[in-house]
Specification:
243 residues, alpha/beta, Rossmann fold, 7-stranded mixed sheet, 10 helices, 19% strand, globular, binds S-adenosylmethionine
Length: 243
């Protein structure tokens, strides 16, 4: 079963608040370029592309063609990236051996049949092409500041796959891990901006909290923002690369 539905409400919340300030993504830009082929003629799959923020960034940073696949009609309707393709990771509507790399950003926890996804990625990627997974993994949530204010949401991470589980699911399709590294990002210019922009429906771990835990966390976050309104919010998420 899907962890959460990307319907009209969550898609609108996601589009409004989860597009990271592009100037805070310098470390991601460099980290991705270490593993993904770049330049004209390169074709990259953005799988579970959401509202197209990364597809847009990759095209502008690396001058690559991005094939952005997204199952939710509501997310596609909010997309900043033109030509988003309707499709699911388990049955990609794409030709075989046609792509030079795949990018999955905060998607793996939504994919209950990871071995089927790995087999599809093996089919659509050229031999040797990398799969780049940006995620919080079970047991590795320490770099995400949101959990400082909403510690109960760390429990939700137990439902996310671990690095070992993702690697085991990809191994039968011939993928092996080649890199695992936490990558920092400026998620919000200030704590005040983070509070003002927070939309519960845009964050799976917050959407799955009970209301009392969410309200307590929001009070903690607001109090912190009153103490240090200008402090930037810096998070680290993992980049796992398989080939
Ligand atoms: C947290 S959003 C991430 C969106 C985008 N990758 C980003 O980082 O901005 C998760 C996305 O995964 C998509 N998703 C859920 N199940 C999927 C599936 N079976 N195949 C492909 N994408 C899926 C959702 O529709 C949603 O857009």
């Amino acid at each position: 079963m899907a962890m959460m539905a990307y319907d009209a409400v969550s898609a609108a919340a996601f589009a409004a608040t989860r597009h990271l300030p592009v100037e805070g993504l310098a470390s991601w830009r460099a980290a991705v370029a270490r593993h993904l082929p770049v330049g004209p003629g390169v074709r990259v799959l953005d799988l579970g592309a959401g509202t197209g923020a990364w597809a847009t960034a990759f095209r502008s940073w690396y001058d690559v063609d991005v094939v952005a696949v997204e199952p939710s009609a509501a997310m596609r309707a909010h997309s900043a990236y033109p030509g988003m393709v309707a499709g699911r990771a388990e049955a990609l509507p794409l030709a075989a051996a046609d792509l030079d790399g795949a990018w999955l950003s905060t998607v793996v926890h939504h994919l209950p049949d990871l071995p089927a996804v790995a087999a599809e990625l093996r089919r659509v990627l050229r031999p040797g092409a990398p799969v780049l997974v940006r995620s919080v993994f079970a047991g590795r949530g320490g770099g995400v500041t949101l959990f400082r204010w909403f510690p109960e949401a760390l429990r939700v991470l137990d439902c996310y796959p671990s690095v070992a589980e993702v690697c085991a699911a990809f191994e039968p399709a011939g993928f092996a891990p080649v890199a695992l590294t936490p990558v920092p990002q400026v998620s919000a210019r200030s704590l005040k901006a983070a509070v003002d922009g927070l939309r519960r429906a845009a964050h799976t771990p917050l959407a799955l909290l009970d209301d009392a835990d969410y309200d307590r966390g929001l009070r903690r976050l607001r109090a912190a923002a009153e103490r240090t309104p200008d402090a930037p919010v810096v998070d680290a998420m993992d980049l796992l690369v398989l080939r």
